[in-house]
Amino acid sequence: MSATRPNRCSNPLLRCRTLGLLALAATLGGCPATGHGVIAGAGGGGPAPVPSTTIEVGRDAVVRGDDGFSEVFLTVMPDNLALVRERRAADLPEGVSAVAYADVVDTVMPESTRVKFTPDGGSPQDVSFLEQRYRYDLIAPARLLELSLGSSIHVRWTQPNTGAEKVLDGVIESTEGGLFLRTPDGTYTIGAPPGGGAYTRTVLDSLPGALFSRPQLDWLVDVYDGGPGVLETSYLASGFTWEADYVVTATEDFEHADLIGWVTLRNQTGARFDDAHLAVIAGDIHMASPPMEAAEREMDYDRVMDMPSGGSPGYVEEGLFEYHLYKLPRPTTVPAYSWKQVTFIERDQIPVTTKYRAMVTLPDAAYGNPTGTDDFTPAGVRRVLTIENQEQLDGLGVPLPAGTARVYARSGEDLFFIDSTAVLDTPREEPLDLDAGGAPFLVVKSKLTDSQESDAGGFGSYSVTHHLVSMVNRGSRTVTLVLRLALPGAAYPGYGANWDARLERERGGSGPALEEISSGLWEVELELAPDVETTEEFILRVRRTY
User: CA-CA-CA-CA torsion for 53, 54, 57, 63, nearest 10 degrees?
Assistant: First the structure.
């Protein structure tokens, strides 16, 4: 690569080999400073550019980085999507040439490709990418035969009784529904051994062209001043998913727990990534725009791909717009069609809070429920572990991506699996609640004791119902019970749009305050001592509109 370019256009408006200005140069009839002709077909009439040579750039040309990394970056996003970025060494000659970029991911979105060549000591503006072609016609037996129509073929097989080898020669006439051959004597036959055979082999005299073992991208490039440099590509590909998996092991008294967080990555493509930079993004990626425009708008490439060289053995988290980016600060290899798990958080003996939650449904008169009977409706009770996720309390205070938590509990030397629960995206310094099994020693039941209903004119109704909730703790120590009281259907978003509901204690009743969580849903927290029956009476007032 020469240090000086005396013949280069000094006026950027006349730089005829810069992509996007070829049409202008064509209008001017060439580059007046250098006398270079303009590549027709990029901006006007004339013959299409013809490459003088083809440069093959395979995976073996990947640039090696520091600390064991190769310059391969895999950033896995939600919704079965990943951003692949590679830096490969290439030597591009001056003028127009073809670049065969091999070993791309077989699920690549070609329209999302971003490519740049930086010559050693030069500028990316010295290179124009004129055309791109995605080659995905892969070698497969059926495709080989289809592309060999009119070619000679030999079907060889071994007769099972005699062991004699037989040969059927012919020319392929059709592959629809089977192999149809024209034999040398002018007759036609299907390509199957007569009378049955074993060890059948189909032999071609030659292979058809334009077949590839792996997909590849081809570019037509125009280089101002040839020489070695770095070819950098970025593209989106499907077939990659990830989720967080948490393993929580509680102590026997449920006052502390060990926490391990895994990033579980699934590579469902045929691509292998050796010693790669690996990162995952938590959040919703919007794909309304064309794929690459969306990715460039929503992600800063430099921030996504500038991986740290040191740090903790797990993932490093940092903010990225409304997303969270988790980067692995050490090289990792992701094989094809495989799962990969890497820890992103690990803490021992985290203090946890244990409470119990009971869901009690409060039917109103509109549901025609019986009143004044001795029939109670039992409510299910669940144990809930709360990790406060605050740096000053438990050393965490980090965003926790959505996934699945599996909860274990110790009892002496034994270990028991007690529950599995979904985890939503949890911001830093916000608590994480985990279901941790049932609580059969807590008996919670309710009944409707009185119901009144009246019309509210021609536009709805008004009901007043009275409810009794009975609770008893048959355990050996005092527990905290969160009583969740709900109208039927209150758990469904938007269901209560046509009601105005209020819940209060019966007149003269006292106790902890009721907290309205959402329309038709309330919570109250109670302390239950062993073997002491506790009752609560509530009045529910509901006005419905039609």
Answer: 20
**With contact defined as beta carbons under 8 Å apart, do 424 and 338 qualify?**
no
Q: Reduce the DSSP state of residue 51 to 3 states and report it.
A: coil
**Whether 42 and 177 share a structural domain:** no
- Indicate the pTM of the whole model: 0.63
- pLDDT tens-place string over residues 85-126: 999 999 999 999 999 888 888 888 888 999 999 988 878 877
Residue 81 to residue 324: CA distance in whole angstroms = 16
Is residue 173 included in any domain, yes or no?
A: yes
Q: Which domain holds residue 187?
A: 141-204
pLDDT digits (tens, 9 = 90+) for 150-178: 777 777 777 767 777 777 778 877 777 66
Residue 225 lies in a domain: no
Cβ proximity of 246 and 423 under 8 Å: yes
Q: How far apart are CA 423 and CA 432, in angstroms?
A: 8
> Which amino acid would we find at residue 501?
A
> Using alpha carbons only, what angle is made at residue 536 by residues 533 and 542, rounded to the nearest 5 degrees?
155
CB atoms < 10 A from the CB of 1, how many?
A: 14
* pLDDT tens, position by position, 264-290: 899 999 889 999 999 988 765 555 444
Q: CATH number of the domain at 369, please.
A: 2.60.40
Contact status, residue 363 vs residue 451, Cβ threshold 8 Å: no
Residue 147 within any structural domain of the chain: yes
Higher pLDDT, 201 or 359: 359
* Whether residues 366 and 508 fall in one domain: yes
- 197 in helix, strand or coil? coil
Q: Is residue 214 part of a domain?
A: no
What six digits make up the tokens of 113? Answer: 């490709």
